[in-house]
Amino acid sequence: MADKDYPRIVSELIANAIATSRIAGENGRITRLVAGSIGRFASELKVGNEAGKADALLAHARDLLAENDGAEVVPALTAAVEALAAAH
Question: Which domain of life is it from (predicted)?
């Protein structure tokens, strides 16, 4: 798990989802892909006994969405990340 730069990957996924949504509106497939990836990464970290890193990753995703008007631009993705954070 240590060889994967999850924060960078999550940053790129969220940036792409937001950019796409600003042009064409939120895409359900992209939302599910990004939310699923974030959830999978957090789960991998938890299984690898790195729960603190999993929580930090979810906080990072929440912060990125907040900084980029995620609630307005990608509301379903924002809700999914909030649900992931609450579940972890």
Answer: Bacteria
Nearest-angstrom CA–CA distance, 55 and 46: 9
Both tokens of 60, joined, read 């990072």
Which among 46, 42, 45 is positioned nearest to 85, based on CA atoms? Answer: 42
> Domain residues of the chain, as ranges?
4-85
Q: Can you tell me the distance from the alpha carbon of 87 to that of 73, in angstroms, rounded to the nearest whole number?
A: 23
Amino acid at 78: T
Tell me the whole-structure pTM to 2 decimals. Answer: 0.91
- Dihedral in degrees, nearest 10, Cα atoms 63, 53, 15, 64: 0
3-state secondary structure of 26: coil
